[in-house]
């Protein structure tokens, strides 16, 4: 049960609403002895809240993560790690007038039906704000992965019809630099420029647009993931599809595989040095749900943000017809796919940290 | 943990290898008082093993499901339901010569690395045979859904580049008839014919091809699924991506949403009679991870089967270069997407049965 | 996994060390629509920290519980409820000199071996301070039980060899008054006086003493608890034995049953009005692990507190022989059984709240 | 959820009714590479079904355990291990006439209320027969413990008022021999004789009697068990209290600790060779819920069996007054504590196997 938790051994539980006093996450099951600081978590949070471009509308939160437990003298102790992020840039007044209005594409309709009550301030629990907790926990997971020499990253691959080819994974340090310095988290500077021009158009229309984030993990051991229901690909799918605004997930060749023949798609085994490996990676680093050691690659599809400045028809909670649009001065993200990249990276890291710990009991 | 289990309250655990004595599933958490018979399970199993076309290569198992516990006087008792399916059509001799050979696209490489031992006979635990257990359990889940008036079905949507448009969901009885009577589980007879011709070509080439299965559930209550990590869409993604040979999953508009604008994608709310509803269903029946009451629609992408008759390069477990192809007389499925349809239907039913039981404690 | 969580549907996760910034608990799975206030939680916390007698040595914390999420306009929303309790009365200086000393009866030895690192300040995670989080969560569980008309209470039954007979459960309001107004949580005033005199002796000796807490829940429906591994009695046993300093648990007749004959022990069924019931209650309200509707009664045995003012031999973490005793002025609880009573009550409430929610899916 | 499962990583799921076709268990999470045979499981099952004395009334089952999956070439593969035990000595005719009668001390009352349906044949799911599955799984767990050099055993300690002192744990091989060759699983031959005479009396009275089983595990590493809710002592308590007919559990000094002073109870640390250890073991091998490396010792209290030949008053399911006694020729166990010993040993082994696997991710 416990729908606000994710993971088996390395397990997170998040809590908090967009406009409540604070949000937070508890990490249970992180091994003792891992060095981690509030500063490292803050850095990850800052990436989620870029602010260095006009295509994301971050809250002006300082997003200071406070570690309240589980770390002693700079290292994890094996006790649960509680991280708290205060909500400071909160003004709920604009939500009051629309609290009885069903906003197209929003979850207030389903929450109200499910629970009979909805904390409408800033979207309450349904807000993307919850993903800050994932990023904070992901920063701890990344430290664990580093210990095992594993690298993870996610970047913007597509906005509307503008798409880049996948970058090379042979120099992860370079890739990380390219991604983290791009205002769009897009490692291909040329495409990023096109995307920015397009996003400007979208903003001017008062509209929004969907996008695709690609993720990759390298230097994985062979053997992560479990054969049947906890396939690495299945757990990743759940992790990514649990993000707000997601509509699609693929691993390796993805939907393109549906149009390929076996003779094209199969990755032939070969030997490089002492290592058995494959020359192609259509599988995306997973065979039978278990990591092959090749780069773990996949993509997540995000729908266009629901909140737009164009007028839309809708009804109130009591069924009266009305219309809705964001006010001209409202916060407005033209796409969710940019700021989603660091969150996808966090989810990837959480899944792998858990898989590594689970792997420890696979054989005698 | 427990990587061979799926579900929270309505929870299944499967066991068994392709060429072991038997395979089976235990269902824990099915409410007492549900009428279920071995015949109903057998019927579902028969669908998974079509045999009524030349594009699937079923074992000649009778696939008789034996209910060993949890049912008394024709009804569930609340005790765990154990279902056993004997393995009869088993000849492991053809696997002996290739046991030290890494077959491209197969999981023997990753299993061997992970566990240090691999039951290679018929693919062992990695075989698609395990999905018979999912179908058996899915038949019980479907009975529970029937009690709540919910319908579920899955059908072939695409083979290679040949694709159908989605059928109408207004007459589910008709749709079920169209799907179940099609040798390809494809409700569109015209497209099915094209697909058959194409599959014939593929077979003659000794090759294989990928495909897409679409699923739908209708008459859902509003409110199924949990907001954060157990979103209905996330749990479905995990369920589907846990099937062998899957590479992609989408819900509603899926990857197409990435190229849509908010003004196109948002489903406007309206009132029909006493009911609040939406005129379009880009969301695919889920908002914020919770069911909207509209049809729950999604798609699963399958890669081409790895076992083909074309010659492929590979290496042995000790790294020696060699080649591999299926023998001319071997079993050979040109696509996995046909026989996957009833399994997708089963997984959909299992996810929904669990969501309905979880929903019971959402509010006072 | 997740060793810092308890419960299935109504599930708590606690975090925090004795001398960290704060401790806290997240409740996941509480139904929406339940009225709960910070004041109600504070009242329960105050009981755990009596201060109204000389036999408990509470920290001078105000123990203000702050609800950070999951409650909106005074009611639960279905989102996780995060409760934070700041640590204010914290002075770790006295722990510094003894950090490399293994204290007899203390957990620093096992923590250090297990994790390789130990937050020794105030006992860190091993401190009884964690139970404040259980009491806070228990207050929410009690509100849910109230909704179903169920009463729970726990009281001091024995200190050393001084023991009371069980009180009557026919007037729970009276019993609650007697317990809550007793400085020892002992409903029998005469025995309480004897206990106090004895505790005074123990204090003067600089020693400590063990004790027994009894718990009862009344007005339970028949049917709570699950037949095999989640028997109500088994889950209660785990709940109680997870408390610090516990050595024993019994339900109903307990160890006394080992000396009874079947003809004495069996509770005969009879009919009272429309109700099938039993005249005796040796079973303690549980048959086959499932509640009978009669009072659920059991007992928890606590060892004497380890920290005493008498001198004891021990060794340091590096194995050097030394001695240890609490300083004359140190905090010193002569027994843990008094302040344990409200915590036992909280655990009982948590177990029952969860059992009630699980019960909702037992039959169609 | 999943009330028919036990364990986190090494996790069992049992199924089956006393008079169904078969009972069985699936072990998920056993590491690959462990040698296990059907014969080893059969041996454990034979112990549970002594037949070598007149004080247990075993079914005349051969209790042949069939391993249906998860073992290949004599070793575990990491796949779930399914073990099936057929029910052969089954005659349900004697249960037909009493199916509407509430038997004192039996669970048919609570099952019927909970589920609205009850498989009354042989007690159905509530029968002690389920424990054969625990013993089968326990045999696999014991093999894993052997790999780590850990020994586990359980023995009869008390029947009615006749009790033995605890044996020495310094020679486990000798202790095992003494226990396994005793018809009562009692290592003290003199006391066993007294017990036998007493059981004869009880049998002649047509009555039954309670008893206590003690368990011990030796050669444990320091560090097993988790600090808060999954304390080794708490998990053991749940394991033991999940057995039929249990009323009480204690670890180490148990309830006796409630009458001890801290100066008596604390185990002083000392150094033996390179090892830090304790000279006494009141803690029973657990401090703060984590193993100390000393023998893990505890006791389980069983009530007298409910089925006796003395006449008892009761009512029918519709509330009509009647009486009930076992027929003169019926199976009749004078105590459950004898045959419970191998089951307690199995549960102890299961808890420790799981704790060892969980321990693997405690620190970097």
What's this model, at a glance?
Chain A is of the alpha+beta class and 364 residues long. Chain A has helices at residues 38-48, 108-115, 131-147, 172-181, 189-205, 232-241, 262-265, 337-359; strands at 5-6, 11-16, 22-28, 65-67, 71-72, 75-76, 81-86, 151-159, 162-163, 211-218, 246-251, 269-272, 275-278, 286-287, 290-291, 296-302, 312-315, 321-324. Chains in contact: A-B, A-C, A-D, B-C, B-D, C-D.
3D structure, described in words:
4 copies of one chain form a homotetramer. Chain A has 364 residues and is of the alpha+beta class. The first copy, chain A, has one domain (5-359): Chorismate synthase AroC (Chorismate synthase, AroC fold, 4-Layer Sandwich), CATH 3.60.150.10. Helix content of chain A is 27%, strand content 22%. Chain A contains 8 helices and 18 strands. In chain A, the strands form 6 sheets. The first copy, chain A, has a 5-stranded antiparallel β-sheet with strand order 1-2-3-7-4. In chain A, strands 9-8-10-16-11 form a 5-stranded antiparallel β-sheet. Chain A has a two-stranded antiparallel sheet with strand order 5-6. In chain A, a hairpin with a 2-residue loop joins strand 14 and strand 15 (290-291). The longest helix of chain A is centred in the C-terminal third of the chain and has 23 residues, at 337-359. The radius of gyration of chain A is 21 Å and the shape is globular. The mean pLDDT of chain A is 94. Chains in contact: A-B, A-C, A-D, B-C, B-D, C-D.
